[in-house]
Amino acid sequence: MTDPLVSSAWLAERLGSNEIAVVDATWFMPGDGRTGRQAYAEGHIPGAVFFDIDEIADKSAGLPHMLPTDKAFAEAAGALGLRRDLITVVYDGQGIFSAPRVWWTLRVMGFPEVFVLDGGLLKWRAEGRPLEAALPHPEPTSIEPAFDPSLVRDLESVRATLASHDAQIVDARPGPRFRGEVPEPRAGLRGGHMPGALNVPFGGLINADGAMKSADDLRAAFKAAGVDLDSPLVTSCGSGVSAAVLALALARLGREDVAVYDGSWTEWGGRADTPVVTGA
What we know:
The protein is an alpha/beta fold. The protein has 2 domains: 5-147, 3-Layer(aba) Sandwich (Oxidized Rhodanese, domain 1); 150-268, Rhodanese-like domain (Oxidized Rhodanese, domain 1, 3-Layer(aba) Sandwich). It has helices at residues 8-14, 36-42, 70-79, 99-108, 120-126, 155-164, 175-178, 215-224, 242-252, 264-268; strands at 5-6, 20-24, 49-50, 87-91, 114-117, 152-153, 168-171, 198-199, 233-236, 259-261. Strand 9, helix 9 (242-252) and strand 10 (259-261) form a beta-alpha-beta unit. The mean pLDDT is 96.
């Protein structure tokens, strides 16, 4: 098992290598007042291209940043100069937040060697490492469409899982949102969680410097929430972003087979025909 995280020192030593592709996946919650693209333009790791999860998405779904089709992804990734024969390192500006979403997307789309920069741009800046504002002009590449359905769950497959209990569903939202004690940040969504879902708030897996906690601490957090690390697992959150943080943490524990519920609570909590539980 290869750790899905790489350190800032590891990346700094290889920056500029023709064997490495660096991807900025910065994204902010709605209402933050800025966009990931704006933050990228203000300063990014030299050579990094920007992957916009709101643009490289299936906009026909009516839900935020849903996975694009494999063909649409291949076209967008090719325009960014990405290649499957390179080691791809993804980071974001908040430590570890939105980068895992792109890490997961690339894996779904057939990229074999994808890693997340531990601590992201937050740690990179704190260490005084180089940044640039110049926008790169990558040479386009040709990518064959590919798709791994085992890493993705949709509404109907989650319904089936709840009925059959063939996997545990682990929700990454903060506890008050999971319990329905506070409103969801997106209007029109009910509060609470899916029946039987477990709660591992993603923020509890990240250190103050933006880096992910140790494998021992991650294992303890999942076990404390009742997660059976040997059972099939599906992660969920508000809109499929922090669910990927859980998938990344579980990959660090050797579970590279964890699926993400793409629509997450924005889909589930926005419907009238899905069961919702409030409280613990």
